[in-house]
Amino acid sequence: MVISISRSRTVMTQRWFHCSDETFPRLLAGTFVYGMSNPVVVRTSSSTAHGWGARVRWLLLQYEQDLDRWLAELARKSLQLRAISELASDAGQCSIEKLCLEISTEQQALRWCHRTNVALLNWLLAQSDELIEVDDAATTHEALNSHYDSCSVLLHHVAKDWSSHAPHPPHVARILEMLDIHVPNRAGVKILVPGAGMCALALELLRRGFTVEACDSSLPMLLAVARLLGSSSASEGAPAAGPTMVHPYLAQRDNLEHSRSRLQGFVLKPADQRHLPPQDLARLSLVHAGFVAHYREAIGVFDVVVTSFFLDCVPQPLDAIRVIVDTMRPGALWLHFGPLKFAQHATSTAYSANDVVVVAEALGLTIIERSLWAEQHYLVALADEMHRSEWYTCLWLIAQKPAT
Fold first, then answer.
1. What CA–CA distance (Å, rounded) separates 319 from 304?
2. What is the pLDDT of residue 390?
């Protein structure tokens, strides 16, 4: 299968632009060819694998309907402004007419950005059967979350973890620093990363020589990681390694200084920056599963468990902590960082930072370090967003299981 992509990185980098429908095919210059042998696969259940093709089509259909809704809203906005202009002065009418022309141009640009995202989504998710390995031990029933699996959320996380503008959170550096201190010998050390998402943290651990198992409830995210890693492993002379742009904020429609700001784009990291040698990728496992159900019988398997922005994303946090402790070998470490915002699950019981610490100690862990950190914006920030609600003060915790 061949899909057209953009090789130009000068078209849009964090700026607004417009483009006609006729121009779009010319901008999508070059080709990317599927079919290379992919070194990374995602383990999931046979029932999930069987229905995945239909699920991809549904996700892309939902994203197409999103565009129709966004365009309809802009059309209503233009009609309402023109109705107001009839009551305005001559100067006011000119200003409103100019604004309506900007809206028309924004509609064209929105179509272009949406098509760019669709090209990226198709490349990441379409024909992804080659990236799936059936493992009926991968229990997924508890993990279904339609919002978390949506195309818009996936695009946000691609920008957060795989764009050239991806932030370098200080807590990741702290985790790596603590592992340097507490686990100086990395050969054969197995690390579990629940709630791995787009695997930025898991890959940093992999680059430092650890054996890493990354688990997440989102199959689209893990398949996107497998595709991105696979494309970076193409041999010399192979076609371009995938689309080069992502526009994650198209769905943002309020709290903006300028409406067109939602068209902001981010350049994806080039293949050479995504590249990991085959011997490193051999130490990486990607598992699509519900964490508690899948790991409840994995007793004493891992030397380190690292959780980042995870505990408040599971339906039953206390069950998750219990399973984390059970998976740890004697002497193993648990490093945790994240907020405790429990709005994602209506049935989830909220726990305080002190609650988490008390439960960890009650289950036999020794607290080595505990503090609260002020953390940056979770996602890549939009340039002129007027209301930024996702700044968190986070619990930082290092705990150890007794050696005997």
1. 18
2. 64
Buried b (16+ CB within 10 A) or exposed e, 55-68: ebeebbeebeebbe
State the chain's mean pLDDT as an integer: 82
| C-beta of residue 162 within 8 angstroms of C-beta of residue 268 | yes
Instruction: Tell me the torsion sign for CA atoms 80, 81, 83, 87.
Output: positive
Q: Are the CB atoms for 231 and 126 separated by under 8 Å?
A: no
| CA–CA gap between residue 14 and residue 32 (Å, rounded) | 24
Helix (DSSP H) and strand (DSSP E) numbers for the chain: 13, 13
Look-up: residue for tokens 């007419």?
97
Q: Which amino acid, one-letter code, is at 270?
A: P
Query: pLDDT tens-digit profile of 222-256?
Result: 999 999 998 765 444 344 457 889 999 999 888 88
Paired tokens of 289: 């599963």
Tokens of 183: 């686990």
What is the model's pLDDT at position 379? 66
- Note the Cα 193 to chain centre separation in Å: 14
Q: Whole-angstrom Cα distance, residue 283 to residue 225?
A: 15
Share of the chain above pLDDT 70, in %: 79
What is the structure's pLDDT at 275? 84
Reported as a pLDDT band with limits 50, 70 and 90, residue 385 is low
Query: Please, are residues 226 and 288 in contact by the beta-carbon 8 Å criterion?
Result: no
What CATH number does domain 2-400 carry, 3.50.50.60, 3.40.50.880, 3.40.50.150, 3.20.20.70? 3.40.50.150
Burial level of 347, CB count in 10 A (0-12/13-18/19+)?
A: exposed
End-to-end CA distance of the chain: 55
